[in-house]
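Deliverable D2.4 — example input (structure tokens):
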């Protein structure tokens, strides 16, 4: 009775073992969505149904006939929505990445709209730190993108070696911040900024970070009929207004995610860590991020304040641009 409701509504209990236990009980009895909406204003469907299991690598069949002129095709990566192949382009005389929708979901209208959104978003962008699209098309009713091939790891793989020093992090954050400001100036919101969506290319000893995966990107004015509650992004980096499924989300949602990512780059840890997805979303909605100096004492107070501001619950309290945020980190 009253103890349960106290645990659910008192912020001091959120994220505690008691809260997580009660929240798991709610999931079991089907009441979780009701509590989410009425008490926490969580409107996204974050407990997604898994996609069909991925086949073993040796069983992947690529539609070779359509790409018969491409040379040295090989599987480079695979996710829930698409497969990516590395190949040598016949006329461009360069190595490219071919991203094609997975056959098992090609009839899913929501996944198809996501893929089409990515195509529309990327086709209007031309920035050195945004993945470049070279061609688009369909094969066997499966849409595909031909993109530049980036020879380098994803940023999350670099993080496996430990946290970055401030100057190392800024070498990543400055160009990514510039890329985000470019996106926003062209009325595109990425909505899934995270280390797993940033490739890092080594050019003569200099790192070139490249923002990728625009599957959740939103072109302002796009009238595609995708329920806002179906678009969640990655829960560890998601802005409060995305959790509330607000209709008028702008580039400051990306700045929130950039703040989360900055915290992770500099500390080696995410600011909010919960096994329970509902508890994680409640933390984004209600909890101030922990002071990063509690984990990395040598960082300046100005760095902590910049991250705190970037991760403000209300968009109006955040930095207006990513460049302004990165500038505050560097000052």
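Example output (designed residues):
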């Amino acid at each position: 009775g009253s103890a349960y409701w106290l645990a659910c509504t008192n912020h001091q209990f959120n994220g505690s073992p008691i809260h997580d236990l009660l929240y798991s009980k709610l999931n079991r009895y089907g009441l979780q969505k009701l509590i989410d909406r009425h008490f926490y204003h969580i409107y996204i469907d974050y407990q997604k149904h898994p996609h069909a299991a991925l086949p073993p690598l040796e069983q992947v069949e690529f539609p070779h006939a359509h790409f018969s002129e491409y040379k040295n095709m090989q599987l480079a990566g695979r996710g829930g929505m698409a497969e990516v192949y590395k190949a040598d382009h016949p006329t461009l005389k360069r190595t490219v990445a071919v991203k094609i929708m997975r056959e098992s979901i090609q009839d899913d209208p929501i996944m198809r709209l996501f893929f089409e959104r990515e195509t529309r978003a990327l086709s209007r962008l031309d920035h050195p730190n945004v993945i470049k699209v070279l061609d688009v098309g369909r094969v066997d009713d499966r849409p595909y993108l031909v993109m530049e091939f980036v020879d380098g790891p994803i940023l999350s793989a670099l993080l496996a070696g430990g946290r970055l020093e401030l100057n190392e992090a800024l070498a990543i954050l400055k160009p990514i911040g510039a890329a985000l400001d470019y996106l926003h100036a062209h009325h595109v919101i990425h909505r899934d900024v995270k280390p797993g969506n940033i490739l890092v290319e080594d050019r003569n000893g200099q790192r070139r970070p490249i923002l990728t995966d625009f599957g959740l990107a939103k072109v302002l004015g796009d009238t595609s009929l995708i329920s806002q509650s179906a678009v969640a992004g990655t829960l560890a980096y998601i802005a409060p207004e995305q959790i509330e499924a607000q209709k008028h989300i702008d580039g400051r949602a990306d700045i929130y995610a950039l703040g989360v990512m900055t915290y992770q780059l500099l500390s080696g840890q995410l600011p909010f860590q919960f096994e329970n997805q509902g508890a994680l979303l409640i933390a984004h909605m209600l909890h101030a991020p922990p002071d990063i100096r509690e984990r990395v004492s040598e960082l300046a107070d100005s760095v902590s304040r910049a991250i705190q501001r970037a991760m403000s619950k209300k968009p109006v309290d955040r930095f207006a641009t990513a460049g302004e945020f990165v500038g505050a980190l560097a000052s």
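Residues 57-148 form a domain with the Phosphorylase Kinase; domain 1 fold (CATH 3.30.200.20).
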